Structures are given as C-alpha cells and as structure tokens.
Amino acid sequence: MRAPSFGVIALVLIGATLAVLVAVSGRERAAVPVAAVSAAPDATSVAGGGITLTSTAMELPDDAAVFPEGPNVDLVNQRCLACHSTTMVLSQPKMTAQQWQAAVEKMRDAYHAPVAEGEVAPIVAYLAGRQGS
Amino acid sequence: MDRLDFDMARALTRRRLLAAGVAGSGAMLAAKALAADVDLRLPGGPSRRAMTSDFPQKGAMILQRVRPALLETPMEVFQQSLYTPNDRFFVRWHWGDLPTSIDVETYRIRVGGHVSHPLSISLAQLLRMPRIELAAVNQCSGNSRGLFQPRVPGAQWGHGAMGNAKWMGVSLRHLLDLAGVRGGAVAVRVGAMDKPLVAGAPDFEKSLGVDHARDGEVMLAFAMNGEQLPLLNGFPVRLVVPGWYSTYWMKMVDTIEVLPAPDDRYWMAKAYKIPSTPHAHVVPGTKDFPSEPINRMNPRSWITSITDGATYGYDPVLPVEGIAMGGDVGVTRVEISGNGGRTWEAAALGREDDRYGFRRFTARIGVPRPGRVQVMARCTNARGETQPMAANWNPGGYMRNCVEPITVRLS
C-alpha cells in the first residue's frame, strides 16, 4: 500500500527538484510557492462517473525548532518533540504547575510519551517556569 | 522500541520521505512563517499565530502546530466564500505518522468484523457505486477552545477549525449492505492510515452506532467541492458524518469494522468525552461528572464582514454579513442585535443547499451616532435551540456555541 508507484516517485522527484531550483535561485519563497505536491502527467489515476482520482504524494514541512532555552530544556526536547512540534506547547495558555503536571501525565499515560517517572518533575518545572507560573 | 526520542522521530520522518522517493536537500522544508501573522484575540494569550503557506495543497493558513499539522482557516475566508475552498480548509491530525503518498490503484478499503461477506474495495469500485452528495459543515469538537474562560489545555483554536463543503461519495449504508451486517451488530468502527509514532499508543479510530452508520447520509467521500480531497484533508476517502463533530470524520479511511459490542477503545471510551449536561456545561474546575462521547453539533453564527476591535468610517447604517449553522438540523432564523442584546431583529437568510451546511445572513444596523458599537448574531435551529448568551465550560474545551459579540468603532 505504501510502496509508491513509479509515477508517484517521478512526481515527487520533480517536486523536490523544483524546490531545490527555487532554493538555488535564491528567490523568495513567498513569491514562488514550493511545489510540495504536483500531479505529474504520468501519475496513475482511476476514474468513474465523471470523477478522477489521481495518485498524489506530498512533502510535509518539517519543524526543526527546539524549545527556548531554560532549565531541563534538553530533556523537554528529547521527550516532547517525538510526537509533536514546539508550536503546540508554546501556544498553550498560562497554566499552573499542577495543570502542567496533569498534561505531562496525560501525554505519558494516554499517548505513551516516553517519560520516565523521575522526568515528570523536571519537565513540569521547565513548562511552568517558562510561563513564570 | 522502548524509547523514542526526538532524533528517532526525525529519522522516522526521514524514512517516510525516502520511501516516497524524496532525497536530498529539498526534503526538509522548514515551516517558515510568512511575514504576516494573525491575532486570534484569545483571553490572556498567547494570541498571535504565524500564517503559513508551506503545507502541500494549502494556501495561507493560521499555523497552530507544524507536526502533526494543525492549520486554522482565517475568518476572512468565510466572508469570501460560503463554501470553504479546499486549499483553505482547516487541517487537524492526531498522530505524526501519516502516509505522504497515496497510490489510487492499490488503495483498498476493508469492510469486516461482524459481517457476512468481508470486502476489500478498490477506489475504482467505489467510483462505480451509487452516489450521494450533500453540503455539510465539518467543525472540530474544540473549535473556539482558545476562547474558553478559564482557559483549558489543548489546541488553542480561534473560530477557524471549521469549514463548509459539498461532499460527494458513497453512503456507508451501501458498503455495509454489500458486506451484510449480521444480527446483533451495535457499532461500526472506522480506522485510517495515520499511525502513532510511539509503540503501544492508541491508534486513532472512531465509532458510530450501527443505525447512525446506516442512516444513508453518513458517507465515504471521495470528492470535496467537486475535486479530490487534499491529502491533508483525508485523500483519497474520508468519512462524512453530517451534523456531527469532525472527530468522527475519519481521514484516509482504510478499515470499516462492524462490532457486536460497544467500542471500548481509547478514542471512544476516554477521549472526546463531554459532560452529559445541557450545553455540555459544568462549573469551571469540575472534574467528576457523568459523561458521554461528543456527538451532534449545536447552532452557531459568526459575523464575518466586520472584525472585532476594528475601526470603520461612520455611516448611520452599518451593513453586516455572516454565516450560520444549525448543527445537525437546519437554520430556522438568525437575529441581530446592535445594542448588546437588548433588542433583536431578524436577519435575511441566504439559500439553504442542505440543512447541514453554512447559511449566509445579512442585516443592516442603525447606528445613531459615531462611537463604539457592539454587534451580535444569534442562530436558532429547526429543533428550536437558540445560541445562549453565556459561554459553556468543560475541561475538554468542547462545543462552544454562545453568541460571539463583535465590537467595532465607527468614526
């Protein structure tokens, strides 16, 4: 299922090449949309009843951002960024240490975040400390 | 894997990219913010969000989270178009491991479980089946969560975790009838291709009662506003559950499983639960209350032609426009107040394509003198439910549907 067809590979390579060309040419990204998805002429498709579905591949933007400096920040980067980028955490409202603890424990217990018992407190200290709470 | 850290996640992301045939420096795009940003006016902040156009098949969107993607639709899109363009439609994923390529020739949807004839259906077969089409609003359970007071954790959405589209597909009932639902079936669980990044974490899947699943309107949609879905909105096939919150609208559907017992897995038993109270409201801070899975939507309306906090030139008549939705029934009326809710007047309603879609409304408000004006809209649905003035509260930040005042200055 996830093994891509030749057409899909071809169109992604075309997209990647375009992205590189855009980067090399030094033009503004805002002016030239990155061709992260394109429908190559030879992409496979299925059709019926006036609707055509065409095989599609995409490049998702990667987020290389790490958390702002602070005590225990390395641990926070190691444990939290496995599943989600910083933007989720940094947009949360001001919460008490108790609320942050509940959030970290939910991530660990419900979503299997790889947080060991002794790591909850330093992670909570970072998250609450960053907000000055 | 007993330990998964940032580096491993990065390596996994890279493997997915390599599997899709991407190599070299073009693969790692940073989600660079555009120069412009937006203020969602969330009480207590942080309120500003970057705008981004870096996501595939997506135009300018409010960036809530890069990975897994959470992208919000800016309010001006709802003013511009009653049907939300596919490239501006909001995006919400739970798990970061989602396919970056879909081959329409090999894609299959399996129908199994408590059925007589398990099926594996190709997209070509699906396109040959009898079709339905309807307009429906797809709204996140936590739309407007960022406006809750006291604030609650979770995705801090403004009002743009919603969109209205014309969906075309095959009714789930048709597929279930082909498979032959056996006696004693109680629920239908739908699974998809996105997977957790950590071993043992709960795969995202949702269930509907078997009668709901067979109501003839719940559909497997392969087209959205006349075109194939963007990958980030669930290409090639997503579940459409008209009138119900988006959590049930599974994207990249690949399994349909008929259950002889209620679904007791995480995403039905523990997540997306609301208080079993009117408006899903409890006193802020309450933790223990009877709860149930979130379900049908409630009436809402938004004024979209003017922006909260903005200043406009004075004119004795202020024209306002907006959008309304009834929830799981149609819109009966929308009323407008220009005096903080003391008096209300009926707005004119635009056409109704389907009771589950957005309805445009327009009104003219008399403004005797320049200064501050507070404008409100309130929607009443066909069940007679009217938007309340007071906001509800629950710890999940779900089902907000109070009147949303817009205050502007006319000078």
TrEMBL record, chain A:
What's one GO MF term for it?
heme binding
For this protein, the record's InterPro entries field holds: Cyt_c-like_dom_sf
Q: What is this protein called?
A: Sulfite dehydrogenase (Cytochrome) subunit SorB
Source organism of the structure? Sphingomonas jeddahensis
UniProtKB/TrEMBL annotation, chain B:
The cross-references to Pfam families, in alphabetical order and at most eight, read:
Mo-co_dimer, Oxidored_molyb
Q: Where is the Oxidoreductase molybdopterin-binding domain?
A: 97-267
Which keywords label this protein? Metal-binding, Molybdenum, Oxidoreductase, Signal
Q: Where are the transmembrane segments?
A: none
Q: Name one GO molecular function term.
A: heme binding
Q: Which residues does UniProt assign to the signal peptide?
A: 1-35
Q: Which SUPFAM superfamilies does its entry note?
A: E set domains, Oxidoreductase molybdopterin-binding domain
Q: Which residues form the Moybdenum cofactor oxidoreductase dimerisation domain?
A: 293-403
Q: Which InterPro entries match?
A: Ig_E-set (IPR014756), MoCF_OxRdtse_dimer (IPR005066), Mopterin_OxRdtase_euk (IPR008335), OxRdtase_Mopterin-bd_dom (IPR000572), OxRdtase_Mopterin-bd_sf (IPR036374), TAT_signal (IPR006311)
What is the required cofactor set for this protein? Mo-molybdopterin
Query: GO annotations under biological process?
Result: sulfur compound metabolic process
**Is the keyword Signal assigned to this protein?**
yes
Q: What is this protein called?
A: TMAO/DMSO reductase
Q: Which organism encodes this protein?
A: Sphingomonas jeddahensis
